[in-house]
Amino acid sequence: MTSERAYHHGDLRRTLLAAALDVITQEGPDALSLRDLARRAGVSHAAPAHHFKDRTGLLTAVAAEGYALFADALAEAPDLQERGVAYVRFAARHPAHFQVMFRPELYRPDDTALLTAKARATDELRAGVDGLSDAARGEDARLAGIAAWSLAHGFATLLLTGNLADAMEGRTPEAAFRSLTGLIFTRRDDDEE
């Protein structure tokens, strides 16, 4: 839990975002309040509004930061499978961001910083699909992208909600996801030989 030490000079915006991420990780985004964050930071209850205007503004900042971190993580992956691994790793390392990013009812979807970060993340996801051969991608690259996204997002969501605990059998999430994709995407030619 976030320590209840008072805020002393520095980056109050960053301090409030960090406290918000702690609350979201522990209790979910619905438990978030600017008044509570102000108390945790040891500032007046009006101070968070100066930086974020309201709760929706704070959650918009969380989502924008999440998409920027997500895009960076995806950009480091060399191919589609590793982008899926990066997706799962991101969710495990940034559960609060992940919870907010995919709930557009929580934030302002027309925010410029959010749109920019989200576009970068989308481009990185598409780059993984574009790197597939035409045979692997099929006739509809968009559907291939949706299939890849669904697999990674579904796995990450099941992981974060504790639904894969027994199925992991001691493997890291990354190793389990690689095994899963290996099972699903084994070429039929290999099976027929």
Structure description:
The chain is an all-alpha fold. It has two domains: 12-52, Arc Repressor Mutant, subunit A (Orthogonal Bundle), CATH 1.10.10; 63-192, Tetracycline Repressor, domain 2, CATH 1.10.357.10. Helices cover 68% and strands 0% of the residues. It has helices spanning 12-27, 34-41, 47-52, 55-75, 80-93, 95-101, 112-130, 134-137, 141-160, 173-184, 188-192. Helix 4 packs across helix 6 (95-101). The longest helix has 21 residues, at 55-75. The radius of gyration is 19 Å and the shape is globular. The model is unreliable at 187-193 (pLDDT under 50).
Summarize the topology:
Layout: H1 12-27, H2 34-41, H3 47-52, H4 55-75, H5 80-93, H6 95-101, H7 112-130, H8 134-137, H9 141-160, H10 173-184, H11 188-192
Q: What is the compact description of this entry?
A:
By secondary structure, the protein is an all-alpha fold. 68% of the residues lie in helices and 0% in strands.
**Top CATH class of the largest domain:** Mainly Alpha
Strand coverage percent? under 5%
- CATH superfamily descriptor of the largest domain: Tetracycline Repressor, domain 2
Distance between the termini: 55 Å
Can you give keywords for this protein?
193 residues, mainly alpha, Arc Repressor Mutant, subunit A, Tetracycline Repressor, domain 2, 2 domains, 11 helices, disordered C terminus
